[in-house]
Amino acid sequence: MLTNVQSLKIQLMEEGIHIPEGVREAVSGPVTLADYASTSGITMMLGEDVWVNAPIVDFNSNFVKDPPHRLVHQGNFFFVESGGKRHEAKLLPVPSYHDKHTTSTGELYIWHAITHADRVRISPIGGCAMACQFCDIPYVAKYRKKSVEALVESIRTALNDPGLPARHVLISGGTPKPEDYGWQNAMYETVVNTFPHVKVDVMMVPMPGLLDPEHLKSVGVYGLSINIEIFNVALARRIMMSKWKASRKTYFDFIEKTVKVFGGDGRVRSLILVGIEPVEDTLQGVEALAQLGCDPVLSPFRPDPATPMRNHRPPSMETLIRVYEKSVEIVERYGVKLGPRCIPCQHNTLTFPDGSSAYCYS
What keywords were assigned to this record (predicted)? Predict the structure, then answer.
């Protein structure tokens, strides 16, 4: 049974939130950096330990129309007003480095790194060698390798940011071209070696020759996120053709191998988009991952205006609750958890702490 605050998170993810102009003036700096489809909103902590990234009309006018939830500012506090009730909210600032430039290249730090909650995500590849219809990256950025020096400088800046200090690192996509696989792996090692006391995760497509779990663990990578995203084969073929060519078997064989190398405790995760395929397919995907000892991560689909799926509706609250509750039952049977296990990183996922020590702050 969901709590009122947990239900509110799901409503906010589906419907978005309204921020009156007066409230915007009370926020120091931008309300969001809106750098990615699933992080286009404002990040808040509701009550105790319920984190949410709530979409706003500024960046999701394609489906945020007249949300019944509004942000309220009173005194030194923020609240979410919904259904005649007020829920206290801790509004997270954007990082202080958001408008500053690297000394190594003169580019903005946010071209290399973005902090959400307590994690900084770096994107070594601008653009992507693939083009999935739900992802904005290949539609808004040209392919390029970024400066490793600037990436390292950006991580260091994020870790020491006075407004929103990062506690751990995620190295994500876009996906590199085959001729850049060597460069990508050398960059992984550089980051881990430069920050040996910081947990560094890698999120990447398991293309043959790109990732070696044993080598990544040996150099100090903490965990891997290998996202299947869509379990339904026909839809995957149509919506993410480049990834589908790698085959479902390639994904699941790689995930099984990675779990054996890294072990459990949430160090191997795989994200599934909720709301694109039939619920039954999503739940089959959750079970297939759980059987391997991998933590499934439920990501409610958020249509980005820059993508071909801009007019696809987000999943309803009823769908999200059904998927969440059934998924909890599934993972309990196999002794894994819904990821991510870092509580602040749950802001754009269908995950809640369950009171166990499995979920924690980095």
Answer: Iron, Iron-sulfur, Metal-binding, S-adenosyl-L-methionine
Peptide bond connecting 220 to the previous residue in cis, omega within 30 degrees of 0: no
Q: What pLDDT score was predicted for residue 121?
A: 97
The mean pLDDT value for 142-146 works out to 94
Distance of CA 19 to CAs 27, 173, 255, 270, 348, Å? Answer: 11, 31, 41, 33, 19
36-47 pLDDT, tens digit per residue, is 889 999 999 999
Amino acid identity of residue 178, one-letter, is P
Q: Letter for the amino acid at 92?
A: L
Burial of 257 (C-beta count, 10 Å sphere; 0-12/13-18/19+): middle
Rounded Cα distance between 105 and 118, Å, is: 25
* pLDDT tens per residue, range 244-292: 777 788 999 999 999 999 998 999 999 999 999 999 999 999 999 999 9
Alpha carbon distances (Å) from 335 to 158, 302, 353, 361: 34, 29, 16, 21
Q: Quick one: angle between helices 279-291 and 317-334, nearest 10?
A: 20
* Whole-number Å distance between alpha carbons of 269 and 249: 16
Does 347 score more than 90 pLDDT? Answer: yes
Going from the N-terminus, what domains does the chain have, and what CATH number goes with each? 4-91 (no CATH), 97-223 (3.20.20.70), 226-362 (3.30.750)
Residue 18 has what DSSP assignment?
B
Q: List, for residues 34-87, the tens digit of each pLDDT value.
A: 888 899 999 999 998 999 999 999 999 999 999 999 999 999 899 999 999 999
pLDDT at 44: 96
Q: What single string gives the DSSP state of each residue in 48-85?
A: TTEEEEE--TTT-TTT-SS-SEEEEEETTEEEEEETTE
